[in-house]
């Protein structure tokens, strides 16, 4: 296990698991925050693994996930806001 894989494992335990916990419980707005936090954690984990394994092409996965996560959050926020 190289240091990059160890860093990804620490990120998974320290960021992704609490984010999933927040996203699974509570009010809908709180779950949305947990979902966004989980997206950031997944992007960080994928980026660390791509750099650790020296595979530049897999950074595309992190980039696409970053580009898709933000509009998805905006859609969920719009649905939670209700009618104006």
Automatic annotation (TrEMBL):
GO terms for molecular function: monoatomic ion transmembrane transporter activity. It holds the Pfam family MrpF_PhaF. The chain crosses the membrane at residues 6-24, 33-53, 59-81. It is found in: Cell membrane. It is a multi-pass membrane protein. Keywords: Cell membrane, Membrane, Transmembrane, Transmembrane helix. InterPro entries: MrpF/PhaF-like (IPR007208). The keyword rRNA processing does not apply. GO terms for cellular component: plasma membrane. It comes from the Bacteria. This is Monovalent cation/H+ antiporter subunit F. It comes from Mycolicibacter terrae. The lineage of its organism: Bacteria, Bacillati, Actinomycetota, Actinomycetes, Mycobacteriales.
